């Protein structure tokens, strides 16, 4: 009897250690995603335009998608996503990407991918068990740069706009054929059995403290867009006042 109790205790300890190890990997993924988004938004001529972020329903980030010329190897092809809720950005969820025939580009060691998910329909794709880019969810390469026009069609019918970059360079890869599915093991390690993808993205569970750097990066990206819009509108208003004064 005592031996059985000891064995059960050891098994319980082993499962706890395994869960903690998985959770550390999830936290590391969140931190990498935060850095990837910050680096993309720090490039004035290549960052996501403000009018695109304004219409974003969700943001999904996959850090280091390609490495060493291999696709989805090791820790690659794993990302995090968050959606807008009535109280702000939701607790992040974890997902995986696999498949597709888009390949890689010669000389590229790693690619960071940011997906801007648009509208309620786009959000529903993230809530589903899986979906394929280009077939189940239309995807297009998103426009870049602070001078991108709001009046350009922008392929705005696409549910998902993709932004891929490596070493500060925008690559413009579409990722058609890649399958996106929830990373349920990572989700359980972070939130427990009740922390499903839908509950997280719908704002039904609070973000964990470990998600703070990632959510700060998301809010920072949104803040840059708001500041840019405000500055541009202020410049337009000032120019209009000068033109009116000159006319008189």
UniProtKB/TrEMBL annotation:
<feature type="signal peptide">
    <location>
        <begin position="1"/>
        <end position="19"/>
    </location>
</feature>
<dbReference type="GO" id="GO:0035091">
    <property type="term" value="F:phosphatidylinositol binding"/>
</dbReference>
<dbReference type="InterPro" id="IPR051702">
    <property type="entry name" value="SH3_domain_YSC84-like"/>
</dbReference>
<dbReference type="Pfam" id="PF04366">
    <property type="entry name" value="Ysc84"/>
</dbReference>
<dbReference type="InterPro" id="IPR007461">
    <property type="entry name" value="Ysc84_actin-binding"/>
</dbReference>
<feature type="domain" description="Ysc84 actin-binding">
    <location>
        <begin position="99"/>
        <end position="218"/>
    </location>
</feature>
<protein>
    <submittedName>
        <fullName>Lipid-binding SYLF domain-containing protein</fullName>
    </submittedName>
</protein>
<keyword id="KW-0732">Signal</keyword>
């Amino acid at each position: 009897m005592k031996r059985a109790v000891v064995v059960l205790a050891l098994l319980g300890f082993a499962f706890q250690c395994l869960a903690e190890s998985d959770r550390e990997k999830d936290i590391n993924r969140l931190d990498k995603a935060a850095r990837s988004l910050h680096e993309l938004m720090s490039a004035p001529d290549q960052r996501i335009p403000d009018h695109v972020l304004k219409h974003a329903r969700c943001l999904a980030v996959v850090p280091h998608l390609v490495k060493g010329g291999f696709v989805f190897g090791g820790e690659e092809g794993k990302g995090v996503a968050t959606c807008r809720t009535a109280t702000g950005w939701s607790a992040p969820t974890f997902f995986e990407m696999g498949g597709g025939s888009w390949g890689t580009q010669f000389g590229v060691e790693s690619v960071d991918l940011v997906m801007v998910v648009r509208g309620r329909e786009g959000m529903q794709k993230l809530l589903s068990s899986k979906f394929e880019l280009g077939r189940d969810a239309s995807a297009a390469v998103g426009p870049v740069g602070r001078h991108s026009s709001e009046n350009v069609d922008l392929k705005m019918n696409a549910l998902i706009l993709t932004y891929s970059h490596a070493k500060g360079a925008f690559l413009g890869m579409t990722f058609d054929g890649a399958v996106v599915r929830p990373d349920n093991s990572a989700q359980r390690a972070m939130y427990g059995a009740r922390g499903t993808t839908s509950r997280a993205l719908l704002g039904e569970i609070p973000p964990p403290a470990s998600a703070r750097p990632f959510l700060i990066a998301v809010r920072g990206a949104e803040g840059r867009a708001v500041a840019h819009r405000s500055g541009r509108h202020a410049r337009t208003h000032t120019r209009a006042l000068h033109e009116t004064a000159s006319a008189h």
